[in-house]
Automatic annotation (TrEMBL):
Keywords: Carbohydrate metabolism, Lyase. Pathway: Carbohydrate acid metabolism. One of its GO terms (molecular function) is lyase activity. Belongs to the KHG/KDPG aldolase family. The keyword Calcium does not apply. Homotrimer. The keyword Lyase applies. It comes from Albimonas donghaensis. It comes from the Bacteria. This is 2-keto-3-deoxy-phosphogalactonate aldolase.
Amino acid sequence: MTAPNTTPNTTPNSARNLVAILRGLRPEEAVAVGEALLAEGIDRIEVPLNSPDPLVSIARLAEAFGDRALIGAGTVLTKAEVEAVAGAGGRLIVAPNADPAVIRAAKAAGLTCLPGVFTATECFAALAAGADGLKLFPAFLMGPEGLKALRAVLPAGAQALPVGGVGPADFPAWLAAGASGFGLGSSLYAPGMGAGEVGARARATVAAWDAAQARIEAGAE
């Protein structure tokens, strides 16, 4: 069996492990929204494949920001979709489930892969298949206490990112429980939202992340 991958490549430029989930993004607004996110320090962006013309948005984002951001797709369910995302220039594959075939396809293409997991069995199966990190989904059902229990058995270096019902106000509790970062959807972006509002939300999100990290570091000293 393949050994778990505990040294993921999920940090393109910054130390903030925040993934913007742009569900519903339209190609014509992709570059403006991406620029607003990067300007505030969020440089991981996924466009779920159930968005309008997602591969076009991914291609435009990758062309504009691929040298300084990790761009890719969410809701990736098949090997064919992995190939399509890679063909559009995407380097990040995020899924709601942990399909070993999808994980292996992503890694064979040299892409970062964050499959969705909820149980210890799913976590270890995803890591064994080569996952770069774990998308804890839906996080609001697991809660920080659930992550704390998983952390007792997961490899120390395994990345765990809560997604689903998690926002900036929740950062302190999740980080204290062992979260490595977060996937953020509606707290950052909703369909039709302008780049200015996305930028303002990103600014507040980054400030919340930095404040939560500072409190944890102060408490550890």
